[in-house]
């Protein structure tokens, strides 16, 4: 029991703190604060970069959709122009066919006459 | 110094002019066209270069037979130039003006395929073909009616058998048979 009491007394005996403990603790705390600040800065830049990338992606997608729509509209107009041109050509050739048929009939009639 | 700049400008123009001419094989409209357009009550103008035809071909529906055939036809062409003038009354154009339009294509490159004239002279149709090594590389159609005038110029290789596939586009499908009938007539 005496041994135990002695051990206990020694354990609770007041000892002076190492001379640089306070400085060490203050330094460690400052380090932690600096690290935390750096982390929050990095996080801020990361968030900003992510936002910029998101804005760029969304605006690129919107631009692509607009470009696709515009290209489709122009393509449709060009297609209509081609069809108009071919319809006019077809009409001209129809007219030619009619003229040729009429010409053939006249020639045939003249040939049939004695 | 001034002469150097002038020489440079002229040299550059001389070099680029043939290139520009190659890029746009479609002819400039003759002045008579402007006069006709001014008198017409309705004008339809279609001018499509090689690039535009290629672009339009991308938007042709491949499932539709006519459009598929049209796509095949226009993909190889250098250009399509169409003018259709409609007039309110007769006599809005003179024979001299029509002759001017004909003369535009009366060169050694172009051979007449059909030359149809009505006896009264009010209606006529000219079909001319540009032949290169025995193959048609262009077609000019001029249809004259009392109140309608149509000019069609198609440049580039034209395959009559491909035109024959265009049944849904009026007389285009019949062009093959027109060519055959004129060939038979020649015989």
Oligomer status: heterodimer
Terminal Cα span of chain B:
67 Å
- Mean pLDDT level of chain B: 76
Principal-axis shape of chain A equals: rod-shaped
What is the share of helical residues of chain A?
Answer: over 70%
Tell me, rounded to a whole number, the average pLDDT of chain A. Answer: 89
Number of domains of chain B: 1
Class inferred from helices and paired strands of chain B: alpha+beta
Class derived from helix and strand content of chain A: mainly alpha
Low-confidence stretches of chain B: 8-24, 177-187
- What kind of sheet is the major sheet of chain A? none
Description:
The complex is a heterodimer of chains A (114) and B (187). Chain A is mostly helical and 114 residues long. Chain A has a domain at 66-114. In chain A, 89% of the residues lie in helices and 0% in strands. The radius of gyration of chain A is 48 Å and the shape is rod-shaped. The model of chain A has no long low-confidence stretch (mean pLDDT 89). Chain B is 41% helix and 28% strand. In chain B, strand 4 (124-132) and strand 5 form a beta hairpin. In chain B, helix 3 (50-57) runs antiparallel to helix 4. Chain A binds chain B through residues 72, 74-76, 78-79, 81-97, 99-100, 103, and chain B through 44, 46, 48, 52-53, 55-56, 58-60, 70, 74, 80, 82, 84, 114, 116, 118, 123, 125, 127, 141, 143, 145, 150, 152, 154, 166, 169-175, 178, 181.
């Amino acid at each position: 029991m005496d041994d135990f009491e002695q051990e206990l007394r020694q354990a609770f005996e007041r000892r002076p703190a190492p001379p640089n403990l306070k400085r060490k603790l203050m330094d460690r705390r400052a380090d932690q604060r600096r690290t935390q600040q750096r982390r929050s800065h990095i996080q801020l830049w990361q968030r900003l970069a992510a936002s910029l990338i998101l804005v760029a992606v969304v605006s690129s997608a919107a631009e692509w959709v607009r470009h696709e729509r515009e290209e489709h509209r122009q393509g449709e107009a060009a297609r209509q122009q081609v069809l108009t041109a071919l319809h006019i050509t077809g009409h001209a050739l129809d007219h030619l066919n009619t003229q040729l048929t009429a010409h053939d009939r006249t020639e045939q009639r003249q040939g049939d006459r004695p | 110094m001034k002469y150097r700049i002038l020489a440079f400008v002229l040299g550059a123009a001389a070099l680029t002019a043939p290139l520009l001419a190659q890029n746009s094989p479609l002819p400039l409209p003759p002045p008579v066209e402007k006069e006709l357009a001014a008198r017409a009550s309705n004008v339809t103008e279609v001018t499509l270069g090689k690039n535009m035809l290629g672009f339009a071909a991308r938007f042709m529906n491949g499932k539709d037979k006519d459009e598929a055939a049209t796509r095949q036809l226009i993909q190889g062409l250098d250009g399509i130039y169409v003018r259709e003038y409609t007039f309110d009354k007769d006599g809005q154009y003179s024979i001299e003006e029509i002759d001017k339009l004909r003369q535009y294509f009366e060169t050694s490159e172009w051979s007449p395929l059909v030359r149809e004239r009505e006896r009264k002279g009010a209606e006529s149709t000219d079909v001319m073909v540009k032949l290169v090594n025995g193959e048609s590389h262009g077609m000019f159609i001029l249809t004259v009616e009392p109140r309608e005038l149509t000019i069609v110029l198609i440049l580039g290789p034209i395959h009559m058998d491909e035109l024959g596939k265009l049944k849904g586009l009026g007389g285009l499908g019949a062009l093959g048979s027109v060519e055959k009938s004129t060939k038979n007539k020649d015989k």
